[in-house]
Amino acid sequence: MHIVIMGCGRVGSTLAHILEDKGHSVAIIDQNPEAFRRLRGGFRGRRVTGFGFDRDTLTEAGIDQASAFVAVSSGDNSNIISARVARETFGVDNVVARIYDPRRAEVYQRLGIPTVATVRWTADQILRRLLPEGAEPLWRDPTGTVVLAELETGASWVGEKVAALEGAAGTRVAFLNRMGEALVPGPDTVIQDGDIVHAIARAEDLERINAAVAVRSEEEH
Question: What is one Pfam family matched by this protein (predicted)?
Fold first, then answer.
């Protein structure tokens, strides 16, 4: 695929290198030519100086042949406008925009522009490390209604089937992390020592789910 990236900061340059290593052709846009110094010496993609929402700049970057467009500059407005131009003017279906304001990210997500709200994501990641106990969300949908959460199951659940935990907690287990590898459980999958259980649920149910899982541990003592 040919992929156009707007913004040659740390995220943009990292994406460009990863995508090129995977065999894709890449064009990266930045209004500051000095930003291209972040690209490695052997980078073969196009370096285009300009604004990502400018049609001539996008054309120079090969937007007409692009399968995807990514906007990861430091400005919310520039990112969303560029993403809309790529989609609405040039017909690129696969677009993603980084948005720092989570409230605006939710609005644009509902309008059909996939967004990454970096402030919310970063806050969630930090909270997971500060408060490892309980069901801290690993992911949430743009509305904040549905979350993926890591459950603190404890040793009391070792040897029990995943179906039993689901019944007790009233939720669905999405996957287990077992010895560093993801495992999608079946009805007869048994929880082993060291398993990390990830559940998908409504955000408002997390406290209840965590309490239900913890009841078994309390009963064991």
Answer: TrkA_C
